[in-house]
Design a protein that fits this description.
The complex is a heterodimer of chains A (333) and B (491).
Chain A (H helix, E strand, L loop, with lengths): L14 H9 L12 H6 L6 H11 L6 H13 L1 E4 L7 H12 L13 E4 L4 H7 L6 E5 L10 H13 L4 E5 L2 H5 L3 H15 L3 E5 L2 H4 L2 H13 L4 E3 L11 H18 L4 E5 L5 H14 L10 E5 L2 H14 L12
Parallel strand pairs in A: 1-2, 1-8, 2-3, 3-4, 4-5, 5-6, 6-7, 7-8
Chain B lengths: L2 H8 L23 E2 L1 E3 L2 E3 L6 E6 L4 E7 L3 H19 L4 H17 L1 H12 L3 H22 L17 E5 L5 H14 L3 E5 L6 H12 L7 E3 L4 H9 L5 E5 L2 H11 L5 E5 L5 E4 L5 H13 L11 E5 L3 H12 L20 H16 L3 E4 L14 E4 L16 E7 L2 H9 L6 E5 L3 H10 L4 E4 L18 E2 L6 H4 L5
Parallel strand pairs in B: 1-5, 6-7, 6-9, 7-8, 9-10, 11-12, 11-16, 12-15, 14-15, 16-17
Antiparallel strand pairs in B: 2-3, 4-5, 10-18, 13-14
Helix pairs in contact in B: 3-5, 4-5, 4-7, 5-6, 10-11
Classes of the chains: A alpha/beta (333), B alpha/beta (491).
């Protein structure tokens, strides 16, 4: 993209360079001495009113008939079925894994979902339950959800999850460091976690509810991508507001621009508060009209949710059978 | 067939899921075979006979026959309006007038779906716009001015101003219902009575509004609607019983009217053409600026007098902006106006389509490079694809003449001074847009732009409390807000 430099945003370096530059605490993005903060502040701003009205306009798209069935089935395949409670017993995790593999026993053609998402100490159990199925296991790590611990602890958390067999690691960024302007520190941590992940995919949770402004969401998205994120994710689900359409739109635009600059594909995961099929379809419309077609796939777009899955099933049943089923036609988990 | 499927073949911003057709039902509105004139509270046939067809521009199918008002009919309507003015409406306390206007606003809301569908069928605009913009705003203008009816003493200092008398109002086809609301609401609130002449290609929503007047039990003669073409409008404007003329339409006709009214003592406001500059600085919030450019020129197929038809981009980001704009245009969906997912509807008439084509050809002949997303156009109906012209210079015809269609001319500037200079270098002066993250520059620009409306980091936003109107050949007088009442009050 030739004109981007004029926007005050120097092209960011390819990922390995960034990791090298910031892995060693170096403040410069490149040898010319541009600081990371300078780069981030030079990104074109986000106008709140314009962004929100664009998101609201896309929310009025009407997805009907055949396209609705396809959208619902696509959404089901993109769910990271999640349980992140202190009370997650082995029984609860086993039930969740069964649901992930076979969301609707009456129609085995439906599903499976993309992954189950659990705390690190439940990874080995989930892995065993899901063995032989394509459902991945994602683990939240790095002192989830607050991220307030020593880096060594966070890295140990990640290593434990990966050793237990996690296919994906959902980390949280250090929001306090971000809000204090210590962008290089945030980037450094992401790079360290990325290394600790080894072959596991890294999803970086921005916790947009704590970043407060859309400009911050955009900057945090860039830091995460520069740090090597395979996915950027809106929220932990433990902080309100969690995912919103405008926030997701900012992140999708950032992913699109990063792809145009570097050629690397970064996924987006929206999480927290997405409970209805209607909400899910609105996010898919956003993807559809913002990102190239590759993103319409679970390898690049996910929903982090628990109760969403059943609403998707109920709405799919309605579309294919012409009438709603009862609430107990689908297992709760 | 929408633009999306075509773009996929071109490898250009493909959409991964196609939206199935999601048409709004036509059944919500009952279109009659024949419409009469609305005079003195009733629908009456024209004295000299004569009906003209109105068609659906998306299909070219005739919708209905509409009465053609002759001079006698205009005379009847003005007479009815005068009687209603003398006997009912002007003696009525403002708080009582307000009740009728509030009632009209509420019925517009109640019948919003019906109005939106009818507007889209008769005009060709997407249902998304008529549903989300035209109809809600029309109701909002009635609500807003209803509130003024008993507060006229606060419009300006000095003695309490009175109404003028009978207002003759001629409106265009681009926002048929909304323009009727812009004209009728302040006139009625100020205590005037009205004779409104809708455009000949889009008379139906005004006639449905007449039904709403009946439903609201508005006293007979307070608002009359005479349908017809230019001759009907000319008869209305020339009628000696009319004390105030309000016209929205082309600069050419506006000039004629101003000439005819000279020395007549009639009050006049004109809201005419535009060739607005939408100015993008290099520090603009770029994603939203692209949306603003799209909304500025492709909203309502560019049939907007305040459309941002001249894009002035800081030269340093021009290539990037054009590239992003092209990517965005590839996702616009053109087609059936009643489909809820349609972004771009039909051109309103064969004549307008011809004008857009002619000016586009001129643009190419003078050296401009035309680009459109290549979206397939329906076979029947009047359609023109969203088009961007680059290599346009300020001297070119398409940089100077109003096209009134989905055609954007891209030009560049180097400094804020040059942006102002180029923006103001037009015979028009209706509106402008400024996109920058720097607040001080917005104010600096707004002080210097010779335009009635300046939007900052947005475009084509309307509010009943905000005055709207032009400089230079874009007309004079203001509509909306407190300022909009001035035109309907004695000096």
């Amino acid at each position: 993209m030739t004109g981007s430099a004029a926007q005050g945003s120097p092209s960011p370096p390819a990922v390995p360079e960034a990791s090298a530059a910031f892995g060693g605490h170096a403040p410069g993005v490149r040898e010319g001495g541009e600081s990371l903060a300078g780069f981030l502040r030079g990104l074109p701003g986000v106008d709140q009113t314009g962004l929100e009205s664009r998101a609201a306009a896309l929310a009025t798209r009407s997805v009907k008939a055949g396209s609705k069935i396809r959208a619902l089935e696509l959404a089901i395949s993109m769910v990271d079925l999640t349980t992140l409670e202190g009370s997650d017993t082995p029984g609860k995790v086993r039930a969740l894994c069964a649901k992930a593999m076979l969301p609707d026993a009456a129609d085995p053609a439906v599903g499976p979902v993309a992954a189950v998402c659990v705390y690190p100490d439940r990874v080995s159990l989930a892995k065993a339950e899901l063995s032989g199925s394509p459902v991945l296991v994602a683990a939240v790590a790095t002192a989830f959800p607050s991220g307030r611990s020593q880096l060594a602890v966070k890295l140990a958390d990640v290593e434990a999850a990966v050793t237990a067999g996690a296919d994906e690691v959902d980390m949280v960024i250090d929001r306090a460091a971000f809000l204090a302007g210590e962008y290089a520190h945030v980037l450094f941590e992401i790079g360290e976690v990325k290394k600790a992940c080894g072959g596991a995919h890294l999803k970086v949770i921005l916790e947009t509810g704590e970043l407060a402004t859309y400009d911050n969401v955009k900057r945090a998205s860039w830091i995460a991508m520069l740090g090597g994120a395979d996915f950027i994710k809106t929220s932990t689900g433990k902080v309100a507001p969690a995912s919103t359409l405008p926030v997701a739109l900012v992140m999708m635009e950032a992913v699109r621009e990063y792809h145009r600059e570097t050629g690397r594909l970064v996924g987006v995961k929206v999480a927290g508060g997405i409970r209805t099929a209607k909400d899910a379809i609105r996010y898919l419309v956003l993807v559809n009209e913002t990102l190239p077609a590759q993103w319409m796939d679970r390898s690049l777009f996910r929903f982090g949710a628990s109760s969403l899955l059943n609403d998707l099933l109920i709405q799919r049943y309605k579309q294919t059978h012409g009438a709603y089923g009862g609430p107990d036609d689908f297992s709760l988990e | 067939m929408t633009s999306a499927s075509n773009d996929r073949a071109a490898g250009n911003a493909p959409l991964a899921i196609e939206y199935a057709p999601a048409p709004e039902s036509k059944a919500v509105v009952n279109i009659r075979e024949r419409y009469q004139l609305f005079i003195d509270g009733s629908f009456v046939p024209p004295l000299q006979g004569g009906y003209f067809p109105t068609i659906n521009p998306a299909t070219e199918e005739p919708l209905a026959e509409v009465a053609l008002a002759g001079e006698d009919d205009v005379d009847r309507a003005v007479g009815a309006a005068r009687r209603a003015f003398d006997e009912v409406w002007s003696p009525m306390p403002g708080r009582e007038r307000a009740k009728y206007i509030f009632r009209i606003a509420r019925i517009i809301q109640e019948r919003a779906r019906e109005l939106a569908v009818l507007e889209s069928i008769d005009n060709g605009k997407p249902i998304r716009e008529s549903r989300d913009v035209d109809v809600p705003l029309a109701a909002a203008y009635f609500f807003y001015y209803a509130g003024w009816a008993d507060k006229l003493e606060y419009v300006r200092p000095g003695p309490v101003p009175g109404p003028i008398g009978v207002a003759g109002q001629v409106i265009p086809w681009n926002f048929p219902l909304l323009m009727a609301a812009w004209k009728l609401a302040p006139a009625l609130a100020a205590g005037n009575t009205c004779v409104l002449k809708p455009a000949e290609t889009t008379p139906l929503s005004a006639l449905l509004l007449a039904e709403i007047f009946q439903q609201a039990e508005l006293p007979p003669g307070v608002a009359n609607i005479v349908t017809g073409a230019g001759a009907t409008g000319a008869a209305l404007v020339a009628h000696p019983g009319v004390g105030k003329v309000a016209f929205t339409g082309s600069t050419e006709v506006g000039k004629q009217i101003q000439g005819e009214l000279a020395g007549s003592g009639k009050r006049l406001t004109l809201e005419l053409g535009g060739k607005a500059a939408n100015i993008i600085f290099d520090d603009a919030p770029i994603e939203q600026a692209i949306e603003g450019i799209v909304n500025g020129i492709y909203f309502n197929q560019g049939h907007v007098c305040c459309a941002g038809s001249r894009l002035l981009v800081q030269e340093s980001i021009a290539d990037e902006v054009v590239e992003r704009l092209r990517r965005r245009l590839a996702t616009l969906r053109l087609g059936d106006p009643l489909d809820k997912n349609t972004d771009i509807g039909a051109i309103n008439s064969a004549a307008q389509l011809e004008k857009i084509r002619r000016l586009s050809k001129t643009g190419e002949a003078e050296g401009g490079i035309s680009w459109s997303s290549g979206c397939a156009l329906p076979e029947r109906g009047y359609w023109f694809p969203p088009t961007v012209f680059t290599k346009v210079e300020p001297a070119h015809t398409i940089a100077r003449e109003e096209i009134f269609g989905p055609v954007l001319s891209v030009m560049t500037f180097r400094t804020p001074e040059e942006a102002v200079q180029r923006a103001n270098n037009t015979v028009y002066g209706l509106s402008a847009g400024v996109w920058t993250e720097k607040g001080s520059r917005i104010l600096w620009m707004a002080e210097r732009l010779r335009a009635g409306v300046v939007w900052a980091n947005t475009y084509n936003r309307f509010d009943p409390a905000s005055p709207f109107g032009g400089f230079k050949e874009s007309g004079f007088g203001r509509e909306g807000g407190r300022h909009g009442l001035e035109a309907y009050l004695e000096r």
